[in-house]
Design goal:
heterodimer, A: mainly alpha, two-stranded antiparallel sheet, two-stranded antiparallel ribbon, globular, B: mainly alpha, two-stranded parallel ribbon, 3 strands
Chain lengths: 672, 316
């Protein structure tokens, strides 16, 4: 395939287009202009998605931009891995941008201009993170991404809670950035050349490569939200406007996964199975922690944030398995694990983006994030309800939608365990798969809770019901467009997995030089075969067609032979006529069995009303244990240390001059 | 074996399961009545009940949404699909490669999620209660179920039910101690998933204990009939999965017409024995408190894990 312009130039052009859209937004601070620019941004996203997909199938391209410091130009490279993540970034952000065009309708012009600038800078910085081919540009783009998203998180900076959420986010983002910087330093080993090519060529001793792995894992893990560095997610996501939460959770966390794959597989190289076991342990912990805390939430966006933690854990499970297999010399199984992880990365971006957008529409329509005040929204906003249902089924890993495919691939990877030589590793892998099964079933429970409480049933609070009706019910046209795009993504990724499997196989070959077995690659578009047809296969299309046709057949048979008379009545009151909508399950009540079964996981403060309280109150507070044993001690230590260091600061100029003088003396004495 | 014959077998099996499923329920009820010294109802009673329900007028709550109307059909479709995947009469059916054991568990999960959502749709307190309990049992049972199936998958090196059954039934006889543990775990999961004693009691409407019945409290007439029928197919499917995994002998190959009568006879004998065993369990045991269900199902999970580890150890 020949084109006059290399793909990478076009991608860079589109990314610069995002920057230009942001700047234009500041120059023309009008609401109509901002809407147009968001739509333009969506077009840019589409273009980047298509170019990224094309790049997967072409040899890597390089480009040097004469920007940056005098002797340090920016190196860019577009290889299959970068192409795949650009596709994710472009495809998902296109839907979110279209949604954003309709979402910010109540903002004032000036604020909207700022949001437009930050939003597009955020998008462009993510594109440059993925394109970067030297540590310098990577860190510049990485920090731009952190800063622009920080400003987006504190859009509503008048609320103190949002400011502190933003601060926590910035703090953890920088801890991660320091770790990544150190990792680049370790890999470089003092050569002074920070292009990725040089880092790739550098040969590290096993000890140093393990150090580099740990630094990269924790650095990128902080951004991705793995435990114990997840604390910023449930704070920052609810604070940000919904399209921004969707972008952060759907796309930004994925740049961290990109960084992990790029640095660990590509730059450090020589993956060891011990690393994989570490990743698996953290991944399993993250998965269970995320879903168990999600089940305890009644703030919809907080709940979704905890599910992002869970899904990062699932991706880490896939990555960990792949490292175990590659480290033990089983390339094909390792490739399968990597493919499963990357597939889930894309899936999570699509359905989590969709769910956050749905949460945003609910917030617009009812003014509520608290599930306990919702109910019966399906009647007022049927379209949002439909899209949200697609997202909820997808995240619950139910066939035939996309979440199921990637979990299925992860299970298939775990089932390759018998080829491993090491007995304990071989027995442990299926247990990690069991963790995944448990998390999947718990996710289903959590989304039954979300959907059942928010959309089904009757409105719990009469005043909010009235509010929803007054606000005009369903989401606006652009908002629905954005959600429909992502919902279609959930269906397509679920129904045509083979196309993506082949794409990801190419990514895997380019990164690890290992791909799937020939039998797997020869399968046609209908049959998803990870190893060999006799071992496992899955055909979502046939699955869907059969389930759809038998359901339809049942429907018509019943129609044909049944008189079809229906009476409408009140729900049965079980002999107790004074039932009110407030007697329905609340979000907290729905989590009660989980609190019972997994009690020790939570730090609970519960106040139960006594039998003869005049004004009975029930309160429940659940805290994250990590705050007690990790964050608060570290914060106290930092405060203590800075209070001691502050003693040096007297505020008198003569003292500071004396410090300089003493330093000079010391240098003269010791260095000479 | 020609393609047409295989497809004929597929359709035959799917229709057979749907038609025969209420018979199994009737048989279990009959056996239980005998064991409890009651005079037994006719084995055909479930059919009469279905016919009666299909003749009634449906009563639907005012605020029920479209989801509530659709769920019985989706449930029925899911179970029908499951009946097509499981090798009941024959292996190597043309539809089986479309979904393996993990997808089968996914189908059951899909059905569970929809029934729980429908339960919450009318906004009654019982619906929510039933949905919550059902999801509790679901998330406890699913990992145990997957571990059981994984043990069988490790033994046969495949997650295709049909390959598993071929491996276990048609190759030389070998004793797999791992399978014994898996069978015990599977039995416990079967009881929980099908709303049977000791986890749930299908014959009660006592609010403190009911799980499945609380979910379908708002359904009537044809919708209720479809749900009851789907439950019967689910029980049938679970029993046949158990038979396929642990007692696969006698099953036919797809398109193998001469083996079909033997396969049907073997299946009927095994199902009759299984149904009687189920009735015996339901007579001997009392229902557990709801919060003992986690212990029951986590022991099922541990048994399944033990089975898998035993397989790894004995194979080495």
């Amino acid at each position: 395939m020949s084109s006059s312009l290399p793909l990478i130039t076009l991608v860079v052009g589109a990314a610069l287009g995002w920057l230009a859209a942001g700047l234009l937004g500041v120059m023309i601070p009008r609401r109509g202009a901002a809407r147009g620019l968001f739509l333009l941004g969506a077009l840019g996203g589409l273009a980047i998605a298509v170019l990224g997909l094309m790049a997967v199938w072409q040899p890597a391209e390089q480009l040097t931009l004469p920007l940056g410091l005098p002797d340090l130009p920016f190196h860019l490279r577009l290889d299959p891995l970068a192409g795949f993540f650009l596709m994710l970034l472009g495809g998902v952000s296109a839907g979110i941008s279209v949604y954003a065009a309709g979402y910010f309708r109540e903002e004032t012009g000036g604020r909207l201009a700022l949001i437009c600038l930050q939003y597009h800078v955020f998008l462009a910085s993510m594109a440059f993170v993925i394109l970067a081919d030297d540590a310098y540009l990577f860190m510049v783009a990485w920090e731009t991404m952190a800063l622009s998203s920080y400003f987006l998180v504190i859009t509503d900076h008048k609320l103190p809670a949002n400011r502190s959420a933003g601060f926590l986010y910035l703090l953890i983002a920088h801890l991660g950035a320091i770790s990544i910087l150190l990792c680049f330093g370790v890999m470089n080993g003092g050569h002074g050349d920070y292009t990725f090519e040089a880092l790739r060529a550098a040969r590290l001793t096993p000890q140093w490569s393990s150090v580099a792995f740990l630094l990269a894992f924790f650095g990128f893990g902080a951004k991705a939200g793995m435990i114990p560095l997840h604390a910023w997610l449930p704070e920052a996501h609810p604070a940000a406007p919904s399209p921004v939460s969707a972008l952060m959770s759907g796309v930004m966390l994925k740049t961290a996964i990109y960084g992990m794959v790029r640095v660990i597989y590509d730059l450090i190289g020589g993956v060891r199975w011990e690393w994989g076991m570490g990743v698996l342990a953290i991944g399993a912990g993250t998965t269970l922690f995320g879903v168990l805390y999600a089940l305890m939430q009644h703030d919809l966006k907080r709940l979704l944030a905890y599910h992002s933690v869970e899904n990062i854990g699932i991706i880490l499970l896939g990555l960990g398995m792949s490292m175990v297999f590659i480290g033990s010399g089983h390339g094909a199984a390792g490739a399968l694990g990597l493919i499963a992880a990357l597939y889930h990365t894309l899936n999570h971006a699509v359905f989590k983006g969709l769910l956050f957008l749905g949460a945003g529409s609910i917030l617009h329509s009812t003014g509520q994030r608290n599930l306990n005040h919702m109910g019966g929204l399906i009647h007022g906003m049927p379209q949002t309800a439909f899209y949200f249902l697609v997202g909820a089924l997808a995240i619950s890993a139910l066939p035939p939608l996309n979440g199921f495919v990637s979990e299925w691939l992860t299970f298939q990877t775990a089932l390759q365990a018998p080829i491993l030589q090491n007995d304990s590793v071989r027995s442990l892998l299926p247990l990690f798969a069991a963790t995944l099964a448990l998390a999947g079933a718990l996710t289903a429970m959590c989304f039954v809770k979300v959907y059942g409480i928010a959309f089904l049933g009757r409105p719990r609070e009469a005043r909010h019901a009235a509010h929803a009706a007054a606000a005009g019910g369903d989401a606006g046209g652009w908002e629905r467009c954005g959600m429909a795009w992502l919902a279609a993504g959930c269906c397509i990724l679920g129904l045509f997995p083979v196309t993506l499997l082949l794409t990801l196989n190419r990514v895997s070959v380019s990164i690890t030089r290992a791909g799937l077995s020939d039998a797997a690659l020869q399968s046609n578009w209908l049959w998803l075969v990870p190893t060999a047809p006799a071992q496992a296969s899955y055909s979502p299309i046939i699955f869907l067609v059969v389930i759809f046709s038998v359901t339809l057949l049942t429907f018509f048979l019943v129609r044909r032979f049944y008189h079809g008379r229906i009476r409408h009545a009140d729900p049965w009151d079980c002999g107790f006529p004074e039932q009110t909508p407030r007697m329905q399950d609340s979000a907290d009540a729905f989590g009660q069995p989980i609190r019972h079964v997994f009690g020790p996981v939570y730090l609970m403060q519960r106040h139960l009303p006594g039998p003869d309280d005049a004004a009975p109150r029930y309160s429940l507070k659940i805290e994250d244990r990590h705050w007690r044993w990790l964050y608060l001690p570290v914060a106290r230590l930092a405060e203590f240390a800075s209070s001691k260091i502050a003693l040096l600061q007297q505020g008198r100029i003569s003292i500071y001059l004396m410090y300089s003088f003493l330093t000079l003396i010391a240098l003269l004495v010791f260095v000479r | 074996m020609s393609q047409q014959a295989a497809i004929a077998f597929q359709i035959l099996q799917s229709v057979f399961v749907v038609i025969a499923a209420p018979l199994l329920t009737g048989w279990v009820n009959q056996c239980r009545a005998w064991l409890q010294n009651r005079s037994a109802p006719s084995i055909l009673l479930p059919y009469y009940t279905l016919a009666k329900l299909f003749h009634k007028d449906a009563v639907i709550a005012h605020n029920a949404s479209r989801l509530f109307h659709l769920t019985p059909y989706i449930l029925f479709g899911c179970m029908w699909l499951a009946a097509g995947i499981v090798p009941v009469l024959a292996t190597g059916l043309p539809f089986t490669p479309a979904a393996d054991i993990i997808a089968l568990v996914g189908v059951f999960a899909l059905a569970r999620v929809f029934s729980a959502l429908a339960a919450m749709d009318t906004g009654t307190s019982f619906g929510g209660l039933g949905a919550r309990r059902e999801m509790l049992i679901g998330f406890l049972a699913e990992p145990a179920m997957l571990m059981t199936l994984f043990t069988a998958a490790f033994i046969s090196g495949s997650t295709q039910l049909t390959t598993i059954v071929d491996t276990l039934a048609h190759r030389e006889f070998a004793i797999h101690p791992g399978l014994a543990f898996a069978a015990a775990a599977f039995l416990m999961v079967l009881l929980a998933e099908n709303a049977r004693i000791p986890i749930d009691n299908p014959a009660t409407h006592l609010e403190l204990t009911m799980v499945h019945e609380a979910m379908i409290l708002e359904y009537s007439a044809r919708h209720l009939a479809l749900i009851e029928w789907a439950m019967a197919i689910k029980l049938f499917a679970y029993m046949t999965i158990g038979i396929a995994l642990f007692l696969p002998w006698g099953i036919a190959g797809a398109g193998d017409w001469p083996a079909l009568p033997l396969a049907i006879a073997a299946l009927l004998v095994k199902l009759a024995a299984g149904g009687a065993g189920l009735a015996l369990i339901e007579t001997l045991f009392a229902k557990l408190r709801l919060f003992l269900a986690p212990e029951f199902l986590s022991s099922a999970f541990l048994l399944a894990v033990l089975g898998m580890l035993t397989h790894f150890l004995t194979r080495a």
